[in-house]
Amino acid sequence: MKIYMAILLLLPLLGLVNGHGCDEACTVENAIKYLVEHTYPVPELDCTTVNARGADVSCPTGYLATGCSCGMACGSWNLVGKSQCHCQCANIDWTSAVCCRNVRS
Q1: DSSP labels for 88-100?
Q2: Dihedrals φ, ψ of 4, to 5°?
Q3: Which of 43, 71, 77, 101 has its CA 20 to 30 A from that of 17?
Q4: Are strands 45-53 and 94-102 parallel, antiparallel or unpaired?
Q5: Which CATH code for domain 45-102?
């Protein structure tokens, strides 16, 4: 409750309160939007696909595996660590990984 009161007290200082036809709900919505945009910036991802022969593929340094796929209609795979895909079926001809990293810190 204290944080809400602090936000309401800060609204005039942030320049979010105006008397130009914006009711109380609009003011609160603008305040929330402002705080979210300035507190939690939208992440920017850089993703790449990596392929390899066999049952294992590793992401480049600094990337994390976000998804894996396997050849030979194998739907059974797991992540080894955070950046390697391993297909669990026998005689896999290829393995693919989607690897991403956050480019905005």
Answers
A1: -STT--EEEEEEE
A2: -65, -40
A3: 43
A4: antiparallel
A5: 2.60.40.4230
pLDDT tens readout for residues 87-103: 999 999 999 999 999 98
Place 32 in a pLDDT band, splitting at 50, 70 and 90. confident
Whole-number Å distance between alpha carbons of 100 and 95 = 17
Amino acid at residue number 36: V
Burial class (CB in 10 A: 0-12, 13-18, 19+), 7: middle
Output the six-digit token pair for 77: 């795979």
pTM: 0.60
Domain boundaries, the chain: 2-39, 45-102
Q: Are strands 56-58 and 64-70 parallel, antiparallel or unpaired?
A: unpaired
What residue type is 18 in one-letter code? N
Q: Are strands 45-53 and 77-80 parallel, antiparallel or unpaired?
A: unpaired
Residue ranges of E strands in the chain: 45-53, 56-58, 64-70, 77-80, 84-87, 94-102
